[in-house]
What does this fold into?
Amino acid sequence: MSGLVATAIDPTHLREVVGAYVSGLTIVTSRLPGGELVGMTCQSFHSLSLDPPLVAFFAGNHSKSYAALRSAGRYVINVLAADQKALALQFARSSGDKWTGVKFHDDAAGLPRLDGAIAHISCSQAAEYPGGDHMIAVGQVRELAHDPAKRPLLFFRSDFHRLHVAEE
It folds into this structure.
């Protein structure tokens, strides 16, 4: 990235400090032209634009799962519900069959939507930008749905948490 200079920031300390920011968790899924299912857990996901409807997620430069998602050109961002910690861990693996025992249904474009997720956002890859040791993937939203009755799975200080809502 042009204009950036190296600094003496310890990566472990940086991870600890930015880990104080609470985020949700997603699993980005797709199907390759040959029918193979691909997916990866992703904590770094954000809404980018309402007009046009864009979202973004960040994936490590050396992620084989992201390379497969990129080649597919379309994907579903599945926002995980509070009871889907095991699924987050399963898709965080870098090897092996991530899809064993996973329940899903296809969206209108034939892409896998994970059952039980709090939201599904189907996208086509709109752009990609370098971001240090990560890639910034921008998706144009094509289809979306959510379940307002579900609670999200949260990630805070390198651990999983649930949203606790005070009784009214």
Observations:
- Residues 102 and 114 are 8 Å apart (CA to CA).
- The chain has a mean pLDDT of 91.
- The two ends are 49 Å apart (CA to CA).
